[in-house]
Design brief:
The chain is α/β, with parallel strands linked by helices. It has 2 domains: 51 residues; 151 residues, ABC-type transport auxiliary lipoprotein component (Rossmann fold, 3-Layer(aba) Sandwich), CATH 3.40.50.10610. The chain has 5 helices and 8 strands; from the N terminus they run E-E-H-E-E-H-E-H-H-E-E-E-H. The strands form 2 sheets. The protein has a 6-stranded mixed β-sheet. A two-stranded antiparallel sheet has the order 1-2. Helix 2 links the parallel strand 4 and strand 5.
Length: 261
């Protein structure tokens, strides 16, 4: 008799175990208790073997991305990173600083908005107001970031036994807008292909891949070179990209990574 056993490992993965059971044992069998226990133990052992190597949620797989650029900023271009999640804003700010841009602290933009009696707090703000205030503080670009993050409680079987943990899926979108013309100079998007448990590393990786796609450091799609956004790299590409324009040394003071939302 053939018995098909379904083993649910994760909410999106299911493993099937096809076992051959000899004899006349069945669901209504009257075989001795010891025989039934032997078969039960055999099933449990096979279950552990199957699930011991199952994929867990620890790391983010290579994201699916899309993006483009019409032109890339020269070194020391002043930019403001604006968005609803501080971790996304911080990851993008760090990435851009390592690429040679000057990131204007959001507190300067908020102070300019307060002086002009313009509200930029919360989610009810106009992008045109952000562009206008960014121009007042000397920025040429505003990088708008958007993060869609979902979370669930899930069972992780990667250790061979189930344990509950919080997992996430996310999509990060970024686009750079010229404060003078309103034109989008580059845009990138990254989506997690599976759920992951390390939200800090996940957001950092997604942001890195979105920016790397926008800047042409990796192709859109589901594959990326190993030197692009390696795990634990602090959301940085190991090979630097040098825009053509020569940097200038003026105006570097009082410009810091953005730490605020």
């Amino acid at each position: 008799m053939q018995t098909l056993i379904a083993v649910s490992v994760t909410p999106h993965k299911r493993f099937f175990m096809n076992t051959a059971v000899t004899g006349t044992i069945s669901a209504t069998s009257t075989a001795p208790k010891s025989v039934r226990q032997i078969h039960l133990y055999a099933y449990l052992i096979m279950l552990l073997v199957l699930t011991a190597g199952c994929h867990g949620y620890s790391h983010l797989e290579i994201p699916t991305t899309d993006g483009f650029h019409s032109k890339l900023p020269a070194p020391y271009t002043r930019a403001v990173v604006w968005g609803g999640r501080p971790d996304t804003v911080q990851s993008a700010s760090t990435w851009l600083l390592k690429r040679g841009l000057l990131v204007v602290d959001q507190t300067k933009v908020l102070q300019a908005a307060a002086d002009q009696k313009v509200s930029l707090t919360g989610y009810q703000y106009l992008e045109t107001d952000v562009l206008r205030m960014a121009k007042l503080v000397g920025a040429r670009l505003v990088v708008f970031s958007n993060a869609e993050v979902g979370s669930w409680e899930a069972l992780d079987w990667s250790a061979g036994f189930p344990h509950s943990q919080r997992v996430y899926s996310a999509t990060i979108s970024l686009r750079a807008v010229d404060v003078n013309t309103g034109e989008i100079e580059w845009s990138g998007k990254a989506q997690s292909p599976e759920r992951f448990s390390n939200i800090e590393e996940g957001i950092s990786q997604l942001t890195c891949h979105a920016l790397a796609t926008a800047w042409g450091m990796r192709n859109p799609g589901v594959t990326a070179p190993g030197n692009v956004c390696p795990q634990g790299s602090g959301a940085m590409v190991t090979e630097t990209h040098k825009p053509a324009t020569n940097p200038t040394s003026s105006g570097r003071e009082n410009l810091t990574p953005s730490m605020n939302n």
